[in-house]
């Protein structure tokens, strides 16, 4: 008889071997929450989408930039400064009056949005992206179509995510350099205006200064103690903050749809199915008059679109409990937003909401798209 024929009890002298303790599900969840970066691809898509949408909006409004946010705006510098002082909002534009400073901030906003979408030095470009978004939008709060509010909120949340782990120039540089850290020249450059900039210190500026200090700690530990326990603790904290920020982004999207849907339910025009008839006959919302007249002239189509919009928005929070149904609704919501972009002439609002919805995209679908783009995808049978 060989040792392989013996029972575990016989091998241990009649005693049963100790079984390893069973790992509880919440233990695995807590470990994943702190030791892994979940939702990396979703965060990357949101980063790319919001960066490109803001850059495209600024480029489209470039001929009108001075009227919207600059020295030719009906909302004058004096009125803007009074409102900023009243609500403690943050904007770098009042720091220095005159056109030169405004032009610098506006074009810096375009550059920062593009760099943020590309994922170049994402911690720095994300902070500049946040500062320029808040600064321009707080300069004139009467400009926007609803999508600007979403950009404003998501820009705050994105700086807390690890949205450059994939599909970014940072990820590509890290893979090529083996994780070596670069020089802190960009950190020093951005710290000068944060420390020396005039004006009050409301919470967004404190937030930017906090991000600046965290970036300093991150670089120092990566340079001098890359394998030590402090760096491991910092990585765990970064993962937890990343996951919390993604949860907040998802909750924000759910809140937008839930409030919009239940608000529509209470409206008599939405109840009788005629709500979409009115914007389709307003000149302001008819970029394609012939197409709007064709859609608005069909009572059945208007009824279906009106009720379909309400059903999609009210049902979306509940479909998150079912993965397949949630994916179907994401496709329908994207189609709805594309229809709003074409029929009502609100492209940036629609693209903003599509980019926000990306936080709920399935990882398998994103990885499939990545393989197809890189040319390594398999042909579906």
CA-based shape:
globular
The tally of strands reads 0
Secondary structure tally, helices: 18
Are there runs of 5+ residues with pLDDT below 50, and where?
Answer: 377-381
One letter per element, helices H and strands E, the order comes to HHHHHHHHHHHHHHHHHH
- Rg for CA atoms: 26 Å
Kindly, what is the distance between the CA atoms of the first and last residues, rounded to a whole number of angstroms? 53 Å
Q: Largest sheet at a glance?
A: none
Beta-strand level of the residues, as a percent range?
under 5%
Going by helix content, strand content and strand pairing, the class is: mainly alpha
Helix percentage: 55-70%
Average pLDDT works out at: 85
Q: How are the SSEs ordered, and which strands pair?
A:
Blueprint: H1 8-11, H2 25-35, H3 40-60, H4 65-68, H5 77-87, H6 99-118, H7 122-139, H8 147-158, H9 169-177, H10 185-196, H11 203-224, H12 229-265, H13 268-271, H14 289-296, H15 299-319, H16 323-343, H17 347-357, H18 363-373
Helix pairs in contact: 3-6, 3-8, 3-17, 6-7, 7-8, 7-11, 8-17, 10-11, 12-15, 15-16, 16-17
